[in-house]
Amino acid sequence: MSATASSTDPSPAPSLAQLYLGFAQISMSAFGGALPWARRVLVEDRAWLESDDFTDTLALCQFLPGPNIINLSIVVGSRFRGPVGALCGFLGLMGVPVILAIGLGALYGRYGQLEALRGIFAALGAAAAGLVITTAAKMAVPIVKRQPFVGIPVIVGGFIMAGLLRWPLPLVLVILAPASIILAWRLRR
Amino acid sequence: MKELAAVLGALAAQFAILSLLAFGGANTVVPEIHRNAVDVHHWMSDRDFANLFAIAQAAPGPNALITTLVGFKAAGIAGALVATIAFCLPAGLLVFAVIGVWDRIQQSPWRAAVQAGLGPVTVGLVAASAFLLTRGADRGIGLAAITAATAAIAYFTRLNPLWALGAAAVLGALGLVH
Description:
By secondary structure, chain A is mainly α. Chain A has eight helices and no strands. In chain A, helix 3 crosses helix 6 and helix 7 packs antiparallel against helix 8. Chain B is built from seven helices and no strands. The chains are: A mainly alpha (189), B mainly alpha (178). At the A-B interface, helix 2, helix 3, helix 4, helix 5 and helix 6 of A face helix 1, helix 3, helix 4, helix 5 and helix 6 of B.
């Protein structure tokens, strides 16, 4: 846990089994993307992280290479229960989905026809996009309230660069991260 | 047998490298996975890849499942496991090492500034991906309504959003939304 949470003494650290089950719950809910479910389960359902802890941890995972939510499972697992905890989080997140994906891959290999499923995929994709909108809003609110003069310009800047201009992520990070850190440093209290 | 070993070796090497290049998650290296699987190694057709990508998006679990499916198509169950582990392990070990150092410097003032600075960047990127996903998914008024309704339910109510996803899937299966 990071500094902000340890001072308020949140719920007790989850056990290995709870870590496995928590991340399994994330992955089994995550139709069309895992990020919204990671926040919902870790922050809202199980209260293992506070909202800002979640954003900070995700920021770190985003800054390092590799699949973000998988990295998140490793970070959260290792903070609570060390290397074995990291393994439990990872296996919880990936175990069942990998088996399911192999099953779906085998079905696809045999039938190769997805036309019937196309309508379902399209509707699920639309709903999943709605969940990401909500996640962005829920992550933004505490940051904007606490540090509006850093939060608002940087969030808007990131949205414009990555969303509207579609710049590649490394470019966005190289420009925006130092600018934002310097801004936060100068405005720190 | 020898051929299988060669394919597994190619999968392991390719995905281990991509693991350390995937800044921003699995979807950022999808074009490279596509190039390798379709153009370089001829493990599958263009259409196969598009369909496997759709499966990886819709199936429960992280988007990194595209690596599992590509590995499975290339070399069966062994390929699926090799590709998945190769894609997760190098980046996982890196993040594990970094988090140890990061948590040890918890009190340093510049860590606080880095954190205060990176948080909004992350939110901006999530907002951007929400925008891009919405634009890609909402090809009609019905689909846009599903996006809006799901976002509203997830933001304003305590209802589990799985109900919204389930309702969307049913509407989609019945061919009611376009």
